């Protein structure tokens, strides 16, 4: 279920919204801020799910894995009473557990039922879409090539939907080596947070081997991942240094660094917050590009802007490449309990 909103993401303080970077005045240090950036609808929903669960059920509320891949968000929720665990068997019986935005395998749901846990599934609906596609292809007895990174929680959850049909590949070399039962009955799916360009290259390599390759009815890489990659391309060519705010275990944040470099940035760095910026990186830098991964709260971007302003980067331009208005409703089990308690079931 989706809802729409017309409320735009607030521009950073002092930013001048522009469609493309303006001409830089000689001697003026500037910051080009990408828009869209930061929270996507799935992350916003997941974080709000934990906050509303704490409001409704009280602390502690357990969360399996990091709810989203951002250290700041995890610390903030811990301070509110969330307890993060690695596996379901670390949750006391009869307690409440939230499944992260990255999704889980059916075996995890079964484990939770066996422990009589109250479960709230905060899986991003766009990840759930990939899960449904995996089940559909498996029901047709088609081999599924999943493009993604081994060990990533989303990949583990998607693989678990149809493990006997799944083949994981990461790049064109693995695509060239993957073995399937019947080359005429192969489909591909992808992790939602990959580089669009690199994924397309891998799909092309698979299609050369398997001309009848099937695909999802619509792209698996989520709208927010695509939009943030397009946005960073808009600022990268005009930036001496691109700063991407995001945690190192955030796949989409890591991809933004790679996309910025491929798009012409002289240098690009991933930082959790302003405290990780090395002032030495600013040597000879007249223009800084700034963006953030899809699990990063806007306050961390504001902190970087303040840090840069203190060092003379006073001309701030927000470069908009797309508008986003998508919101996802809270998980149905949480909405049901909120209504029963007489509490609003939306944000």
Please tally the β strands and state the result.
15
Percentage of residues in helical conformation: 25-40%
Span between N and C termini? 14 Å
Tally of separate helices: 11
Describe this structure in words.
This protein has 347 residues and is an alpha/beta fold. Helices cover 36% and strands 20% of the residues. The chain contains eleven helices and 15 strands. The chain has helices at residues 41-57, 71-80, 106-114, 125-139, 153-159, 172-177, 196-209, 223-236, 251-262, 298-309, 332-340; strands at residues 2-4, 16-18, 29-35, 61-64, 82-85, 96-99, 118-121, 143-147, 166-169, 186-190, 241-245, 267-271, 287-292, 313-320, 326-328. It has a six-stranded parallel β-sheet with strand order 2-14-3-13-11-12, sandwiched between helices. It has a four-stranded parallel β-sheet with strand order 5-4-6-7, sandwiched between helices. A three-stranded parallel β-sheet has the order 9-8-10, with helices on both faces. α9 links the parallel β11 and β12 (267-271). The longest helix has 17 residues, at 41-57. The radius of gyration is 21 Å and the shape is flat. Mean pLDDT is 93; it is low at 1-10.
